[in-house]
Amino acid sequence: MESFNEFNISKQLQYAITDLGFEKPTPIQAQSFSVIMSGTDMVGIAQTGTGKTFAYMLPILQDLKFSKETNPRVLVLVPTRELVLQVVEEIEKFGKYSSIRVIGVFGGTNINRQKEAVAEGADIIVATPGRLYDLVVSRALQLKAVKKVVIDEVDVMLDLGFRFQLTNILELLPNKRQNIMFSATMTDDVNVFIHDFFIAPTTVSVAVSGTPLENISQFAYAVPNFYTKANLLKYLLQHESDFKKVLVFVPNKKSADLLFDILDEFFGSEVAVIHSNKTQNYRIRSIENFNAEKTRILVTTDVMARGLDLDRISHVINFDVPNFPENYMHRIGRTGRAEQEGTAILLYTEKEQDAKATIESLMNLRIAELELPKEVEISKQLTYEEQPQVLEINNPNNTEEVGPAFHEKKEKNKKENQGGSYKRIIKQKYKKPKTRGDKNYNRRKKGR
Ligand code: AMP
């Protein structure tokens, strides 16, 4: 899209865009505008820096007519107070020529002042979930006029454990509303969340900021299990001199800690780890050291890596194969930036072959296979998840499977993760929903 004129937006917004010096919409803005204007639910997969804030604010502001209504008509939920301030600032820039009333609320500060502020009335409230809920429960704020809700950085929110607060808030909102969410990565949790609250959303996805695949050499090793993957990684990091700045992606906190312990024994201060159970200070220090090239190896989960501005990564190691191929693209996009060459290495087990094939078909490219070096010891040790299932046959009361096989566990997780499982079973049985959440679904549909 060559210019903002194609959006057919108001004069006020055009003036604001001219003031900001934006020449043309970013890809996420170009793709989101018509979807949000059409009123359907939308899921945007985009990182910070892609222009996602304006991607949702532009159509929302275009649609927001002047009103004397005290209660907010637009709700934007974000995970941190820093983001509240940032988003409010962006909205103020955009709304400069229209009399938009926007208020930011977040925890950790005096609630009374925020109560006074919202009592004066606002068109848009930008909030962290906890504080917003407190304001609603204390009757300082009413959500009955909300027509559009934006949930930004959903992956981070869920990773920080905000699911409960988000659910509470969504249940208080009017049924007839538009849901818009943005997430840098797709995760099982995000997927469940979408299924529970969104109605046939349109997905809009942009890759990590313009890293061309040609700059990245991609290789894959077939490896039997976690501990052999660790042996291979240790081998590569010890023997290959060009592994100068290495970002290692793992699927979750547990694997992050496990792998970090193994690497720590060998590489000591050369290696650091970040995930959401680490303190903010620890994470900041790890990232600073990595950026300053004091540590050579950084182990991270997908969610933690998002938003990090990391430069000159020589190698991205995918210790697992992401279930969502977009995540693979985001991961490898961390290397090969700014005209530099980068290398991405994928370690996959037999169970991960299908996920690898999905990624390859998305890229329309086959990842070059490398032989496992002879020196790398094949470990027989299995992680808990990899262990074969054992039935406690002597215990008549316990038919639970113990230590499920890798594959079994994954299937089991998938089932759990579809979310609202009770609702789904009831729906299948009666062909129509019977619970509150699904009743909303019908009401909202009628309202459209
Ligand atoms: P965000 O991804 O929303 O955090 O935005 C990243 C930065 O891009 C912000 O500083 C915006 O001011 C800027 N930005 C947003 N849209 C555009 C655009 N169309 N052209 C140039 N810069 C933009």
Characterization of this structure:
This protein is of the alpha/beta class and 448 residues long. It has 2 domains: 4-205, Rossmann fold (3-Layer(aba) Sandwich), CATH 3.40.50; 216-370, P-loop containing nucleotide triphosphate hydrolases (Rossmann fold, 3-Layer(aba) Sandwich), CATH 3.40.50.300. The protein is built from 18 helices and 16 strands. A 7-stranded parallel sheet has the order 3-4-2-5-6-1-7, with helices on both faces. Helix 2 runs parallel beside helix 3. The longest helix is centred in the middle third of the chain and has 15 residues, at 253-267. It is globular. The chain starts with 10 loop residues before the first helix and ends with a helix. Residues 399-426 and 432-448 have low confidence and may be disordered. The structure holds adenosine monophosphate. Adenosine monophosphate is lined by residues 22, 25-26, 29, 48-54.
CATH fold label of the largest domain = Rossmann fold
Question: What are the low-pLDDT stretches, counting only 5+ consecutive residues below 50?
Answer: 399-426, 432-448
- The main sheet orders its strands as 3-4-2-5-6-1-7
> How would you describe the shape?
globular
Topology:
Blueprint: H1 11-20, H2 27-38, E1 42-45, H3 52-63, E2 74-77, H4 81-94, E3 102-105, H5 111-119, E4 124-127, H6 129-137, E5 148-151, H7 154-159, H8 163-172, E6 178-183, H9 188-197, E7 202-205, E8 216-222, H10 226-239, E9 246-250, H11 253-267, E10 271-274, H12 280-291, E11 297-301, H13 302-305, E12 315-318, H14 325-332, E13 342-348, H15 353-363, E14 368-370, E15 390-391, E16 401-402, H16 406-417, H17 421-430, H18 436-447
Parallel strand pairs: 1-6, 1-7, 2-4, 2-5, 3-4, 5-6, 8-13, 8-14, 9-11, 9-12, 10-11, 12-13
Antiparallel strand pairs: 15-16
Helix pairs in contact: 2-3, 3-4, 6-8, 14-15
This protein binds adenosine monophosphate (AMP).
Residues 22, 25-26, 29, 48-54 line the site of adenosine monophosphate.
